[in-house]
C-alpha cells in the first residue's frame, strides 16, 4: 500500500478485513467462552479459597492433615502405577490400531472410525458408574452371568467373582 493510496482513502481488502467490527458470531463466541470460563474458574477458585481460608483465617492445616495420612506414600505409588499402566496399555492399543489402519488394507470399519472418539463421548463418571453396574459383587450383570454359568457345573457363588469396588475384599 503506497502513501498515495492512504492519502486518497483506498484501502486493500486485507486492511479492510483487519479493521472490521465484531459481528454477531464474535459476540456469541465471547459469550459462550465467558460462560464456560465461569463454569470452570468460579468453582475452582471457591475450592482453592476454602482450602486455605478456614474459619475466617488463612491456614495450611488442611494440607498438613492430608500430608499426615499414614498410607499416603502407598496411595500415591498405587495411583502412579495405575496411571502409567493405563497410559502404556492405551499407547500399545492405539499404536496397534493406527498401524493396522494405515499400513495394511485391513479396514475395521466402526472399530477404527468410531472407537477413538469414545472417550470424548463417554464422560468418566458415566464410565465409572457403568463398570460399577457391570461388576458389582452381588448385582453386577457380568458377575450374575458368570455365577449362572458356574451354577451349571454345581458351583454355588453368592458374590463375585469380580468386584468393581477395590479394597473391599
TrEMBL record:
Coiled coil region boundaries: none
Gene3D superfamilies, alphabetized: MetI-like
Keyword terms: Cell inner membrane, Cell membrane, Membrane, Transmembrane, Transmembrane helix, Transport
UniProt superkingdom: Bacteria
Domain (ABC transmembrane type-1) ranges: 76-169
Subcellular location field: Cell inner membrane
Record's bilayer topology term: Multi-pass membrane protein
Transmembrane segments: 30-54, 75-100, 120-137
Keyword Cell division in annotation: no
Protein name, as recorded: ABC transmembrane type-1 domain-containing protein
